Prior knowledge:
Layout: H1 4-9, H2 11-20, H3 27-63, H4 69-101, E1 122-126, H5 139-146, E2 149-150, H6 151-157, E3 164-165, H7 167-187, E4 191-193, E5 198-200, H8 201-207, E6 225-227, H9 232-236, E7 243-245, E8 251-260, E9 279-289, H10 294-312, E10 316-320, E11 332-340, E12 345-354, H11 358-363, E13 366-368, E14 375-377, E15 379-387, H12 388-398, E16 406-407, E17 421-422
Parallel strand pairs: 4-8, 7-13
Antiparallel strand pairs: 1-10, 2-3, 5-6, 8-9, 9-15, 10-11, 11-12, 12-15, 13-14, 16-17
This protein binds one RNA strand through helix 3 and helix 4.
Amino acid sequence: MLDLKYVRDNLDQVAQMLKDRRMDMDLQQFAALDEQRRAILSQVESLKHERNKASEEISVLKRERRDASERIEQMRQVSQKIKDLDQDLSGIETRFQEILLRIPNVPHASVPVGADETANPVVRTWGEPPRFDFAPKPHWDVGEGLGILDFERAAKITGARFALYWGMGAALERALITFMLDTHTGHHGYTEVLPPFIVNSASMTGTGQLPKFEEDLFKLRGFDYYLVPTAEVPVTNIHRAEILEDQDLPRYYTAYTPCFRAEAGSHGKDTRGLIRQHQFNKVELVKFVKPETSYDELESLLTNAERILQELGLHYRVVNLCTGDLGFSAAKTYDIEVWLPGQNTYREISSCSNFEDFQARRANIRFRRTGGKKTEFVHTLNGSGLAVGRTLLAILENFQNADGTVTIPPVLRPYLGNQDTIAAVHR
RNA sequence: GGAGAGAUGGCCGAGUCGGCUGAAGGCGCUCGCCUGCUAAGCGAGUGUGGGGUGUAAAGCUCCACCGAGGGUUCGAAUCCCUCUCUCUCCGCCA
């Protein structure tokens, strides 16, 4: 959520921002409601002031055993008026908040203006694509050939866009989760947390999934509960409605969770393989920092995520998302895209964002500087470190051998009984 | 799932028959005084959000907030209803 005063005083800039993001919103209604809201507010507040004073008078009259019925009768009317105005106000307030909650974040100055992902500049590239003396297969062929990925049975158990992992497939997924968490806690200073995988609507609103993106979520029938679409939601909301102390910042958290996404509007896209699932595993990095450090913190968060790919030996590039591709809550986002030789393309494997105070304002996460009187909103950041399923498929595609086996990256071998290869097993 | 108890400021804790209670008292914290050091002592201060005023900060002023929402009333932390959460006992259970 943007600062109300900022929007009020910079309507033109906000309108331009919406244009840059290729969004269309009616800000006139916002301005009108804002004006109405303040007009009624000052009216109702002066009436309440009157009521408070009369209340004191009445109490004095009563104590002195004098007649207060005339004053009470007057106040009966004032009270009714207050009630009516309060009702008007809450109606306006609701509509006003609804609009404010649907205005996206303002992109940082370093974010290029552009229409879509084709306008995302490449920031850097790491490593080289592997060379093959045979035609590399897509991971679904590799995985099914090895008997470690089973999409048919997953469809039977649940439906489309779910996966069943067997044997070394399941073990590799688990090894990746542990390796990622160990790296972030052991080398990057993050504290591991294991949050609930189900959250309420207040948490979803805090990080920006609600109210705008309800159709992307799985909601539990009969509850105000949703399955988490990313660990960002429960982990960022750890500090919702809290005031942190200066020395509490920065805070770095890492969490493994499964992620559940309805993938509304993506029918026909990435229907094969592990790329786009309703359920996938992810290790997330979340930071709470002071405003003046948040862009440095974004760079280091990105570096932390990149290290996983570097240690695994996977070639990737980093892109800076342009205004048309930037997420709703983000001020700036870097995507890390891993090379997939089986599909001859780069695919997103991590998204690292600085939300500045956008989420903090929604979730009311503040801090107080030492000796300071005023509270300020923290800046929140998060990034995948990494998407586990996509990492697994990248390994299958990049380290496949001509005989159909897959070589296990050395850093993962200690987690897999020091095995160096995944060989085929009949299922 | 059944029965009961509770939710007040950073913490503990009081609020009688609804009426100067934003909220006693204590602890903590901040500043000042005192003091070989430490401790103790003395004095003052110590919530959040919003509106108005102010170039801004400060200040001044008004409104709201005693788990959340609604109701009764001239007036609610105090009465009523609904919900949420916490605790105790019983049952069930990974």
